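[retry 2/3] Entry exclusion protein TrbK-alt: previous attempt timed out, resubmitting with same input.
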Amino acid sequence: MESKVLVRIGAIIFVAFAITAAVVEMVREDAPVPPAAAPSLLPPPDPLRADLRRCQQMGEAAANDPGCLAAWAETRDRFLGRNRSSARTQPASE
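[retry 2/3] Entry exclusion protein TrbK-alt: success.
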């Protein structure tokens, strides 16, 4: 008989704890939302990104497009840390 009473008391305590936690969560105020970054602090848009997006939308035709080939070369040079002038002066190794 005592085990049933203990189980009931435990269930009541659990339900009371769950209700209390729910009420506290509903009453708690959310932290203020930080203001959006000022437009003057945003980095300037990268024109290379727009070119790459255009090439992506072109699909297979981009492989023959000189603009896409130039954009890919610029991206490759940026990734490898080369500037465009040094990339042009180095001979191509075969």
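[retry 2/3] Entry exclusion protein TrbK-alt: The radius of gyration is 31 Å.
[retry 2/3] clearing retry counter.
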